[in-house]
């Protein structure tokens, strides 16, 4: 739209045409909508669950003494900015939320996720 406004017609339609061609040829995935559906299903089934203590902010000594923030490992302090960690409440452990496809970039991301999990098991 900005190209049409700034450059004018007929050249302004070229970026929109290129975007349409790219989107037509890009690998398709429903992972985002499927993951949202899985997360929504879990919320409906399990209800509101408590945030794990290690993820809770501890602005007071009392909260710190109750375990808030205890044991949290900040990923950016680790090699690769990753640390094998469980962030979901215990009641959701092992529940499938995201399942990457074997299409396009998701295949590469799926492989990266597999490597990170394996490295986390070793470390």
Can you describe what's shown?
The chain starts with a helix and ends with a helix. The model has no long low-confidence stretch (mean pLDDT 90). The protein has one domain (2-50, 77-122). The longest helix is centred in the C-terminal third of the chain and has 19 residues, at 104-122. It has helices spanning 2-7, 13-25, 31-46, 61-65, 104-122. It is mainly α and 123 residues long. 0% of the residues are buried. The chain is built from 5 helices and no strands.
What is the count of structural domains?
Answer: 1
Low-pLDDT parts are none
Number of helices: 5
Task: Describe the largest sheet.
Answer: none
Helix content: 40-55%
Strand segment count: 0
H/E order of the elements? HHHHH
Oligomeric state as shown: single chain
Structural class computed from helices and strand pairing = mainly alpha
Strand percentage: under 5%
Radius of gyration: 22 Å
Straight-line N-to-C gap: 50 Å
Average predicted local confidence, pLDDT: 90
Shape: elongated
Q: Which structural traits does this protein have?
A:
123 residues, elongated, 5 helices, mainly alpha, 48% helix
Q: Topology of this protein?
A:
Blueprint: H1 2-7, H2 13-25, H3 31-46, H4 61-65, H5 104-122
Describe the structure concisely for a colleague.
The chain is mainly α. The protein has helices at residues 2-7, 13-25, 31-46, 61-65, 104-122.
